[in-house]
Write a structure and sequence with these properties.
Layout lengths: L19 E5 L5 H8 L2 H5 L9 H9 L6 E7 L2 E10 L7 E8 L8 H15 L5 E7 L3 H9 L3 E12 L2 E11 L2
Parallel strand pairs: 4-5
Antiparallel strand pairs: 1-2, 2-3, 3-4, 5-7, 6-7
Helix pairs in contact: 1-3
């Protein structure tokens, strides 16, 4: 058994990997975002169905809800990840939901961390949100680690939450609260 001294923690990542640009998504990104959403690994971690069309994606970009934000991560002019922040209304206006995904070939490179840092900056410093929440499949260990590093905690366990790849799968509800 290793002692605490023998275990080295990974050094913290910089906020944004070198060469990555975070920007607002635009209707012109529809083709690249549809291709991203149709990647098997990206889709596996989301509630998206296969074969998302460019037109469906474009419509989503053009009809974004008031106050919502969708950001993309670009590397070498190519979209390699995206994140969405959807503020709630009425008595839940202090809260928002978030959903994100990273290109299959770019996972583990800090893209998700950069996107999460950018969207949480908007939530905290521009929208004054007190609660940001998300749902993640229980078998998505990499995403769960990212969310926990970003201050999210598990609040609930949804059994048979969604049908994926021929079977029902569980999910966690997670949230990040600010005082």
């Amino acid at each position: 058994m290793k002692s605490r001294e023998d275990v080295r923690e990974k050094p913290p990542r910089s906020e944004r990997p070198e060469g990555v640009v975070i920007r607002s998504a635009a209707p012109g990104d529809a083709e690249a975002l549809a291709a991203l959403a149709n990647m098997p690994g990206y889709r596996y971690g989301t509630l998206r169905l296969p074969f998302q069309s460019i037109e469906e994606t474009r419509k989503g970009l053009e009809t974004i809800a008031p106050g919502a934000r969708r950001l993309v991560a670009e590397f070498d002019g190519r979209i390699v990840g995206d994140i969405f922040l959807g503020p709630m209304l009425g008595r839940r206006r202090h809260a928002a939901s978030v959903g994100m995904g990273v290109h299959d070939d770019f996972t583990g490179r800090g893209i998700g961390s950069a996107l999460m840092a950018a969207i949480l900056d908007i939530a905290d410093n521009w929208l004054n949100l007190r609660r940001v929440e998300l749902t993640v499949f229980t078998d998505n260990a990499n995403a769960i680690r990212l969310y926990e590093r970003s201050g999210f905690v598990k609040e609930g366990h949804f059994r048979k939450f969604a049908f994926r790849d021929g079977a029902y799968v569980d999910a966690y509800s997670m949230a990040r609260l600010r005082a």
